[in-house]
Here is the input.
Amino acid sequence: MGAAFYEETHALLDAAGLPAYEISNHARPGGECRHNLIYWSGGDWVGVGPGAHGRLTGTDGARTATRQARAPDTWLTRVEAQGHATVERSPIDRGDAAEELLMMGLRLARGVSRGDYRRTAGVDLEERLDAARLDALVEEDLITLDAAGLRCTPAGRQRLNAVLAHLLG
Here is the structure.
């Protein structure tokens, strides 16, 4: 029943000129949420408030994950004492960055481009991902892999967690 409701909602919104650009978001072309697109496209963001996480790319291209103190009182005390409340800075290696790009990018209707994946992972999609797993997901009509890149079909986006588990497992 949930799947049918999801499909009907997508059909109604699409017919109204609000296509799905992401697994759970619709907008008129050009009206997509730029804020969330940064996350889903592997962009940089600064986590500012209590418990916030961030992803930053250095001038050398290396990615770093940041995390702020969680408790508001602790966060405020740290900001007042040292000017920030960052409690963790962790390098993100290329493999983890590539996995994160797939996990976030496959939420998008456009998926993950070959160029973005290569820049992030340092290798092509087929070099990192298991061919048998890719083929199985293509056969089940859950993903499309072509010259543009990798993206979920509508059925695949509806089952994204299972697709990712199979693809990355």
Summary: The CA atoms of residues 20 and 125 lie 25 Å apart. The two ends are 28 Å apart (CA to CA).
